[in-house]
Protein: Cobalamin biosynthesis protein CobD
Organism: Actinomadura monticuli
Amino acid sequence: MRGSAEGLVGGVVLDAFLGDPRRWHPVAGFGRVASAGERFVYGDSRWRGVVYTGVLVGGAGALGVVIERVSRRFGVHGLATAGVTWAVLGGTSLGREGLAMARALERGDLAAARERLPHLCARDPKGLDAPGVARAVVESVAENTSDASVAPLVWGAVAGIPGLLMYRAANTLDAMVGYRSPRYERFGWASARLDDVANWVPARVTGGLVVVCGGSEAWRILRRDGKKHPSPNAGQVEAAFAGALGVRLGGVNAYGGRVERRPEMGDGKAPEVRDIRRAVGLSAAVTFAAAALIGVLR
């Protein structure tokens, strides 16, 4: 565990300084493999989706076992863990994307902000005004603090390199085929449910770390509003962020012609542009708190 803990913390440091690899990103490579597999396996049925998800996530785990064993044999397990952690984390890139959105809105370039929003979430940006974009960004930064940062660290602490790779594979598949649409209603069911299960504990760990970093109001709103969200996991993190930032999240969201009314969380006003920077700062604090916790518990 010592090598794993040091590697996980080292991966957080690498991500903080380097962000995502600009070329030959392993997650992007996995996405290309998954897209090719979808063309081969796809069918409008759950069982095909189960096979698709099982093969890809299982394959990622098998690769992780190989890397783990080889790295231990050659005495570089800590370095290998750090490298894989860096590859699967996305906290720094999440923060950079949030800050880019903030700068666009601060200079009044709503068109640029709308164009960039799909980098963060699947929400339809066409009808959003500046406050609407700001809310979308704050909510996305909150939810992805768990998905991009804390959850990989949790699974890395539990299951080492295989845990890191299997979690990122499951989360990537959820982003690709797990959302509801006529094409993926059945085929994407397994990926979506696996992602829910994989994120159940990490989302609650993230909510707790937001409370630690953000104060007692985060705890109050988390307890009151955390279960209002239709997602069993996103609501935990978004509610905690709403309390910590003193804003109100939730409302009407449009996704490619489909409109959803989300329950509101928090007692403050709707997010403003300045709240994007505050959300990014809180996200970074939570990520480093997670790394510190792993270091303490190693």
Summary: The chain has one domain: 2-297.
